[in-house]
Amino acid sequence: MNFRSRNKVTPEFNMSSMTDIVFLLLIFFMIASTLVTTNAIDIVLPKASGKTENNSSVAVSIKKDLTYYIDQKRVGESVLENQLLALLSSQDKPTIVLRAEKSVPVENVVKVMDIANRNKFKVILAVQPNK
C-alpha cells in the first residue's frame, strides 16, 4: 500500500508580488513628496531642531533686503497689518508662519510678531532643520 500524498506543499515563497507592492509604494511616495512644496520665495532660513506645523496658515516672508511678502505677494511694511487682518479675519485659529532670512535684523522680525500679538494671531517661526 502506497500512502504517499500526491499534493506536495513546497516551502518556496514567490517574491514577485512583494516587489510589485514595494515598487508601487516607492512611486506613491515619490509623487507625494514632489507635491509638497514650500513657498516659492527663496529664503535662507536659520537652522534649528523641531518641526513646523502646516495647517491653514498665512506665510509672512521677510527677505534680506527687508521686503515683506504675504503668501508670495509683495506688500509694503505700512500695509502689512491691514493685509493680515483681511486674510485672517475669517479663520477661527489664525496662524502666521514667519519666514525670515538669517541676515534680517531682529527688529523687523519683532515688528511682525508684535502685529500678531496685538491681533491674537499664533506665530510659527519657520526654520531649516538641522542635518
From TrEMBL:
Pfam families with a match to the protein in the record: ExbD
GO terms, molecular function: transmembrane transporter activity
Membrane disposition: Single-pass membrane protein; Single-pass type II membrane protein
Predominant cellular place of this UniProt entry's protein: membrane
GO CC, alphabetical: plasma membrane
Subcellular location: Cell membrane
Keyword field contains Kinase: no
Domain of life from the UniProt record: Bacteria
Record's keyword terms, sorted: Cell membrane, Membrane, Protein transport, Transmembrane, Transmembrane helix, Transport
GO BP term, example: protein transport
Stated family: Belongs to the ExbD/TolR family.
Protein name: Biopolymer transporter ExbD
Organism for this UniProt entry: Neotamlana laminarinivorans
